[in-house]
Amino acid sequence: MERNFYVVEIGDVPQWCLDTPVPVAGGTLDDPWMFVEGKLVPDPGPLKTKPFHHGEMRTFTVANADRTPIANEQVARAFRELAPDDVQLFPVDVEGTPERYYIVNATRSFKCVDEKNSREVQVYPPDGAVPERVGEYRSISGLRIDTSKIENARVFRPMGWEVALVVSEEIKARIERIGNTGVYFNRVTGPHASNEG
């Protein structure tokens, strides 16, 4: 049976924009990108964030440019129940709301970008402006993944294109039932639809 997967994208809906999480004790995280690299991270301790743009509170969103996934208790429970081996959940206090939120860290990544079936894949060339990134992905549109390379994962990031948080159809369906998200889900398996970017 074919397994369908979806990348989590920022939704074009009115919503709050949360700042990069920081330690409750003060200062900044040594590596604010650690939650988007597709690997286990050490417990960062108590964290907090605040809206830098106030808007409608959402059950699931991504924070700032680093795209850290932040979920309320219901959405976090969906990840906890459906993908316990694929995620870490770290509590984060959101200023202005008593509701508990969690950073969702995908702990697995796979070399699974299907370059042949993705709409367009660009890599950094050897004669480009950033020689240290030669051969790495520069951009991917119409991403497709090869599901034969992701083992039994339900949540992961594609190696080399970790900006993409990929979830299974079961997780997508559960989150959509919860509703009020600040994200949408873009399919990354199967043939391209005519309206896909």
From TrEMBL:
<feature type="domain" description="Immunity MXAN-0049 protein">
    <location>
        <begin position="77"/>
        <end position="188"/>
    </location>
</feature>
<dbReference type="InterPro" id="IPR012433">
    <property type="entry name" value="Imm11"/>
</dbReference>
<dbReference type="Pfam" id="PF07791">
    <property type="entry name" value="Imm11"/>
</dbReference>
<protein>
    <recommendedName>
        <fullName>Immunity MXAN-0049 protein domain-containing protein</fullName>
    </recommendedName>
</protein>
